[in-house]
Amino acid sequence: MRAPQSIKQEFLKKWILGLQLCDFAKQNMSMLERKKAIKLSADIAIASTRNGMTCWSRALVAKASRDYGDKVLVERMLASESEKLKKVSSIGLIAPNKWVIIRSKKILRKSRRARRVRSSVPQSVLAKSIAKKMVKKRTQVLKSLVPGGEFMDDISLIEETLDYIISLRAQVDVMQTLAKATDLLNERAKVQAQVGHLALAAESTASPTARLISDPSEAFFKQTRESPQVTRHQGHRSSS
Amino acid sequence: MELPTGPGHRSSPMRPQSEDTVFDSLQFGEDIQHLISVPPENASSFTALLELPPNQAVELLHSPDSTLRTRTVIETHHQKPYLQPQFNAANLAFPTNSGLIERAARLSVFAGENLNNISNNSLETSSGPSNSSANLEKVVKSEPAEAESDLNPSQPLVSDPTTVENGAQNQRPVKRKEREKKGKSSTKKSKSSGNDNSEDAEKLPYVHVRARRGQATDSHSLAERARREKINARMKLLQELVPGCNKISGTALVLDEIINHVQSLQRQVEFLSMRLAAVNPRIDFNLDSTLAAEGGSLMDSNFPSMVMPLTWPEVQVNGNRQNYQQQWHFDAVNQPVWGREEDSYNFITPENSLLSYDSSANSDHGRLEDKGLEIFDVMVKGNNGIQAEIEHYGCVVDLLRSAGRVEEGFEFYQKDAF
């Protein structure tokens, strides 16, 4: 039984770890590359909260490990994880025969579609078959959405979807909170910069304001500043 | 402030869950006492899975097969008295939204130890009364597991409108069954190897399903029906997880909603990662303070205390201004202090990549621009009487704008700048 709060906490810890491992110091990182790195670390983090118990998490890790550039990051992030995930990242996700099975199913489906006999069926059966087709189409779409979904049967597909939705929600919540927090910080920094700018402009226009800046504890109330204030101001500037 | 209260609101729906589980366990305790007085009933079909209280349905869905089989027999039996007072479909014990997330969370622990412990406990409590009432449990034989697993990969997700209707009306025929049992003898078809006794029931490897009236009993259709009912049970859980799916009937439309939901969540992740990439060219975190700050209330408050952006590209910082801002951090007690009020705030310099915030700082965003206005007032009206120039006005207006007080800035400009 997992509380959503613990999911979020675990995800955040692992995501922070991943972001630290990402090499953001490179100056030539475009925004797209940064976004990819952030998304990758978020995905690996949310997959690792599952500890390899669910199919989608393993599929996610495997997909990320396919590209060599990302694989390094993945392995570093999962260094402290369970054996299952490490195994998944090192080998391929599924055995090649599964791909063969899927491909042969697709071929069969296409051939069936080609040689369908248009028989006149009673209305009720027609409605049933239409509904079946609709459901089938949608399960195909769902299989393409859930990572690793093509290899699951219907029952486990629904279970995986359930788990996947919960994890996605936790991921979105954490990322939203982080984005809001950074926006907040930026706003505050802007305001502070404005205040600084104003004071700077004020100081540059006239020296009496320099006295104000240098010693605010007396600035508003005493006006007995002489040149020692200016030197004190200079001293302050150089000390910081 | 939006930030602390938002996650706080999100956490508040979690609290009613504990009441739900307490309620369920209470019910369970009463059921055991009812059990003995209840006349022998036929065992349920898989459709009884749908009637179970959510936590047990979840356990059944996810326990390994053997325990599933044995417990199906026992659990469904316990739930019969629980459900009997509720004969109308509207009164069914389906979970409300408050229990959803807990169940869904529990659902996601596949074969966790907790589940096994719970199942062991329930086995122990139920084996007592079930032994005492030997003929209470009647089971119907169903197909073995191998047939099921063979069928599963080959068949696609099939559910026709009739099945869905059956699913919706499942409760009513089952209820009717219960009602019938009281008075009349059961006229249902059942397999020949029907009614075993309770002592053997726990050891049997098969799930026993009673065929409903008027339905075929050959193994294929039974297997298919069992499979369909499994799928329906899980779809119901999924329906309750995704918002807005409760009123929709029909598998295809529900799947539509689920697909939309998953797609929107994935798109949100993309968008948020783009947003984070735009705002922070570098995100550097101090793990020690982060992990120290992480108590139970990670999301509720103090989140920004863990966020330490390294550089802010929008902020035009030059060396001089930084120095001024550092100067402002004075310990003047009685007089208004310029710059930051909070103690633990270190401004970012290129060398210093650590930044931490008090929670008070986040909520008290409004004081700084007032400080700026104060400075301006003092500058103009003080005994020195500096003439305010256009740049000063511009600064003040900009300050007010970035603080969100745009009209004030406009008025200020109109009033003073001419």
Automatic annotation (TrEMBL), chain A:
**Tree of life domain:** Eukaryota
Domain IBH1-like N-terminal: residue ranges: 5-66
Q: Which InterPro entries match?
A: IBH1-like, IBH1_N
Q: Which UniProt keywords apply?
A: Transcription, Transcription regulation
Q: A single GO BP annotation from the record?
A: regulation of DNA-templated transcription
Question: What PANTHER family does its record include?
Answer: TRANSCRIPTION FACTOR IBH1-LIKE 1
Q: What is this protein called?
A: IBH1-like N-terminal domain-containing protein
UniProtKB/TrEMBL annotation, chain B:
Instruction: Indicate where this protein is primarily found.
Output: nucleus
Q: Which GO terms describe its molecular function?
A: DNA-binding transcription factor activity; protein dimerization activity
The answer to whether keyword tRNA processing applies is: no
What are the residue boundaries of the BHLH domain, all occurrences included?
Answer: 215-265
Q: Which PROSITE patterns match?
A: BHLH
What keywords sit in the KW lines? Nucleus, Transcription, Transcription regulation
**Listed Polar residues bias regions:** 151-172
* Annotated Gene Ontology cellular component terms: nucleus
Q: What protein is this chain from?
A: BHLH domain-containing protein
Q: Which residues cross the membrane?
A: none
Where in this protein does the record put region Disordered? Answer: 1-20, 120-206
Organism the protein comes from? Hevea brasiliensis
**Name of a matching Pfam family:** HLH
Which residues fall in a compositionally biased region of kind Basic residues? Answer: 173-191
Localization: Nucleus
